[in-house]
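ok posting inputs for the zinc ion job
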Amino acid sequence: MKPVNDRALVLLSGGQDSTTCLYWAIDRFGRDQVAAVSFDYGQRHRIELDCAEIIAAHAGVEQVRLPIDTFSALGGDALTDPDIGVTNQVDDSSGLPNTFVPGRNLIFITYAAAYAWQHGVDHLVTGVAQTDYSGYPDCREETLAALQKAIQLGMESRVQVHAPLMHLSKKGTVELARDLGALPAMAMTHTCYNGARPPCGECPACELRARGFAEAGVEDPLTSTQ
Ligand code: ZN
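and the output
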């Protein structure tokens, strides 16, 4: 079997974490070896897709946008259904926050792997992390390891799934972004669950982001340039 190559595909949502991962991949594999993929999954905040495009161009990497239009048809989550308020409130029956889209990351990574397979790319990079988050089960290390194994078997592939933020706190993620020179790109990212720009500062995503920057002692270029 051929050795694993150095080409990487970053799952770029347009948010803080995936943007940090893009710079991590550029640092590790080299800019020429890196491309980005973004998913148009019917998210309420289309601004994310614009951010992803701008960030990829700023970073100097190719980006492709892939449509997945089934999430909203599945129904019932706050990130795709405009009738549901985004509160991160935990649902009593599932114990999961109402921003949980069942299997979202499994589906994204599987699509990315299929795209990577077609393009001869052996590394996938995702910004999922099991720290700091609301317990999304598809962000756990164990889930990713099992998915990597399934993809390797199911696609006869050597793909490696990297999650450089897996064990980092939000503070650690901000420090990593700073160390990788990714802070200017942070001004182009989108985090707010309410889709506001400038960000609302009050939703759980805005609060988490603000806390990470504050704890790292770094000024957030997104809020400081508005
Ligand atoms: Zn917000």
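notes: DSSP finds nine helices and five strands in the chain. The pocket of zinc ion is lined by residues 192-194, 196, 199-200, 202-203, 205-206 (CB under 6 Å).
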